[in-house]
Amino acid sequence: MFEFRDLFQWDRFITPGIIKTFYWLVIALIVLLGISNVFSGLAAMTVSPFAGVIVVLYSLAGIVVGIVFSRIAAEYVLIIFRINEHLGAIREQGLRR
What we know:
The protein has one domain. Helices cover about 80% and strands about 0% of the residues. The mean pLDDT is about 90. The longest helix has about 50 residues. It has about 100 residues and is mostly helical.
């Protein structure tokens, strides 16, 4: 993880450690909103069964798509930081020669 003093120094990034926490918070939010929409679809079935089924299916698909896209976004941020680390290592090798 990171230490409190890392917040005031620019030698180490804290975002890669925090991004995993944000990822799980986003997953929880997506699942909760998806479940809420599923219940809305079930309630809509009393008025229109076809529309209710469509809402339930879209809600379940939205949960899956949301999880996939949030994972892609988290990995993208982590890749950017990893590229930065590798470029720093390459730069250090060039300075030593």
